[in-house]
Design goal:
single chain; alpha/beta; eight-stranded mixed sheet; two-stranded antiparallel ribbon
Amino acid sequence: MTRKFKSKQRALPVDAPLFHPDHSRPVSRRDFIRQGFIGGSATMLSGGVFSLFANPNQAHAALSSDLASLAGETNCGLGGLSGDQKIPFICFDLAGGANFAGSNVLVGGAGGQNDGTITTGGYSKMGVPGDMVPGLDSTNFTLFNTSPNNDFVNDDLGLLFHADSAMLRGILDTVGATAPASVDGAVIPARSDNDTGNNPHNPLYGIAKAGATGDVVDLIGSRNSASGGNSMAPMDMINPEVRPTKVDRPSDVTGMVDVGNLTAILNSPADVTAVMESMARISHKKLKLNTVTTGITADEVVKDLVRCGYLKAADLADRFAGVQVDPLLDTNIISIFTDAGLDVTSDGEFRKTASIMKMVLNGHSGGGCVTMGGYDYHTGDRATGEARDRRAGRCIGACIRYAEMLNKPLMVYVFSDGSVASNGRPDMSPEGRGKGEWTGDNSSTACSFFLVFNPGSRPTLSNRIVGRQIGRFSPDASVITSSSPAANNVNLLVNMVLLNYMALNGDTGQFASVFGNHGLGSDLDAYIAFQSLT
C-alpha cells in the first residue's frame, strides 16, 4: 500500500490573505486587517470645534492683514507652524502579531541585547535554529569577537539585529549607505494580547499631547478609527475634539491643501490666494449678520467654525498654491524606492508610506502611523513571514532615508498586537532560509522597538539603559513581566515610548505634568534610552 503524505505548506504571496484553521472566520475590520484580507490604509486627524476657543497663532506674513484680524475675531489659528517644533514621529502598526524578538531584533536578559543567556531552545521558540544562534558572551555581556556565530549579529543601525533578519534586510534595501551611521534604537520586551485590536498600543494622541504639530494637520494615521490605526489608543489620551479622516493614497495628501480648479484657471499662485481671500471676506460678512453678541451659543460656535474654514482655505492657498505636495512627484521619494529596485507606484504599502513620510517630514503633520495588514503569519512556513517582514523593513528604511535627505531627525516606533512562536521545524525553502516555521500565536515572545535618526551623528545613549533594552527576557525567551512597568501593561508601554519621545526633544522635565497618571514611577531616567537631540 502506498502511503500519501500531506504536501508541505507553500509560502503565500506578500499580499495574500491568511486562512488559519485554528482561527474563526474574520468578522471585524481588525480581523480582516491582521489576516491580510484588507490592507492597512492611512488617516488624518484635524482640530475640532473647541479649538476655536484657543489663542490664535500669528497669521502667515503674506496673508492680507484684514484676514488676520478676522481670524482673531473667531480665535482661528492660521499660518502653519511657529515656535519650537518637535521631532517628527512615525509609527508602524503591524496588525496580527508580527515577530520582532530574536529573529529580527536581538533580545536578552539582564545584560540587554548583549546578553547571551537565552538558551538554544529559547532561540528555537523565536524561530532561530541552533546553527544561526548569535554568538554572545553570557558572562561579560559582550560579543564573542572570535565566535563563528558572530556572523549572526548586525550592528549597522546601532540597535542589534539578527544578521539574517528579514526586517533588517528590508531596512538596508532602502535606507541608503550613509544614514545607518546616524541611527540607533532600543527594544522594549512587552507582552500584548494576540489577534486583537483592543491593545491600546497606538501613541498618536500622546505624541500630539507632547507638543507635536503640523502646518496642515497635527497627526496623520493609518485607519479610519478612533485611534488613527489598527490598535486602540489609551482611553485617557483620546482627544474628543479630533476624529480620524481616512487618507490612503497620495491624492489624499494633495487633497488636504486643494484649492479646487483655481490653480488650473489662474496661472499665478498670488491670484489663487487673492480669490480665496475674497471668498473668506464675503462669507465672513454674511455669517456675521444678525449675530448674537452676548454669550456663546451653539449657533455662534457653528458660525465661527464656518468662518474659520473659509479663512483656513485662504491661508492654505497662500502657503500651498503652486507648491508640490504630491509624494509621487517628489524626486527624493521616487529615488529612495527606484534605487532599491522597487516601484512605489505599484505597491499600496509603499504608496501609503510615501504619503505619510511626505506629510510628517515636510512638517505638514507632527506625527503619523502606518498600519500594515497580514502579520498574523503563523502559516506553518517561514517564507510568508519573511516576505512581509522585509516589506515592512523597506518602508521603515524609506522613512529614515527621506529624513536624511531633508536633514531632519526622526523617531520610528514599531509595534504589533501579540507575537508568534516556532516549534523549531525548519523551512528549507529558498525564501524560508532554513529558519523555524511560525506555527502559532505566542504573546510571551512579544516586544516593541524604536529607531532614532539624528542628522550627522548617532544618538547618544543614556547612562542608565543596559544593552539598548528596557526590560528583559528569560532564558527560554519569555518576557519577564516584572522587568519593567511596560512588560505586562500596554498602556504603560505607550507611556514609556512617549517618555522617550519627550526625552529626545529635551522635555523630560515636563513629562510628569503632561502625563500625570503615567504609572512609570519616580525614577524616569531608568527608562530613557537616549539623551536629548536638541
